[in-house]
Amino acid sequence: MSMHYETPQDAEDAFYDALEAASLEALMAVWSDTDDIGCLLPMYPLIRGRQDVTALFTHLFARGQGVPLTVTHLDWVLTDTVAIHHVEEQVIPPQAGRPPPQPFYATNIYRLQDDGWRLITHLNAPTPPPQRGG
Amino acid sequence: MSMHYETPQDAEDAFYDALEAASLEALMAVWSDTDDIGCLLPMYPLIRGRQDVTALFTHLFARGQGVPLTVTHLDWVLTDTVAIHHVEEQVIPPQAGRPPPQPFYATNIYRLQDDGWRLITHLNAPTPPPQRGG
Question: Which residue of B has its CA nearest to A44?
Answer without folding.
Answer: B128
